[in-house]
Amino acid sequence: MNLKNKMAIIQLLVTCTLLAYSVNAEPVRPLFPGDYSVHQSTFAIGAGNFDKVSGPAYWSNSTGRVAYLDNDGKKNVQYHFSNSSELGQHAVFYYNDKICQYFCDLRGSGTDSQCDLGDALCQYDYIHKSKFGGNGTVRGLPVYKYTYKENIIIVKADHEIDVLQKDNQTPVRQQHVLKPFGKEIIVEINMTDYSTAPIDPSVWIIPDQQYCQEGTDAQCGDQSLHHNIMAKRRSAEL
């Protein structure tokens, strides 16, 4: 066999090996952009009187804000993340379509950025620890599962983010299983209408924000269940 034929055979073997690897290789977890909008329907099992929350959510890393609206726009929650030490700059605001009701200071809470919110797609442990967990189906859609575990101070948690197989980029569902003090709370977030188009600036308007007052201890001491479940510190291994 001459050298030319040998080289052709070697090239063929290399090509076949690469093709076989590409067929069998596991999908790689996607990294989502910092600015996006999505409709979220969230419910919890084992969390007591947790009402189902449904409505659009807007995430903007570029402005340091996250806004949750309910379907009728009457009850809204907006997080402002800032390095400022001024009161009201690093805070969560509770408001409706007419007035800001109150805000709660987040300084020292461990919720330092949008990536510290439990329903964020940029969570530290997702980016650094998640692994391909197999294929599945959500609402009839073929998905890839990406899973990871973490310890949130005294709470162990299992997480799963399901992404549309077609593009490996569109989030479809999140599942968070929290295990505080031997109990189990399952939080499921169904995601639709995911978009990376520019966000309408009017989303960030808080009526009478300049007159908004800090909430009482009763309002802010325990925060909302949404904040308790969805806001957390970066992973702290026990």
Structural class: alpha+beta
What is the share of helical residues?
10-25%
Strand content: 35-45%
Radius of gyration, in Å, reads 22 Å
Counting DSSP H or I runs of 4 or more residues, the number of helices is 4
Distance between the termini: 63 Å
Strand order of the largest sheet: 6-5-4-3-2-1-11-10-9-8-7
Mean pLDDT: 82
Gross morphology: globular
* Major beta-sheet overview: 11 strands, antiparallel
Q: What is the number of E strands? A: 11
User: Which regions have little confidence, pLDDT < 50, spanning 5+ residues?
Assistant: 16-23, 223-238
**H/E element string?**
HEEEEEEHEEEEEHH
Report what the structure shows.
The chain is α+β, with helices and mostly antiparallel strands. The chain is 16% helix and 38% strand. The chain has helices spanning 3-24, 124-129, 217-220, 225-230, and strands at residues 35-45, 53-60, 65-69, 76-80, 91-95, 100-105, 131-138, 141-152, 155-164, 171-180, 185-195. Strands 6-5-4-3-2-1-11-10-9-8-7 form an eleven-stranded antiparallel sheet. It is globular, with a radius of gyration of 22 Å.
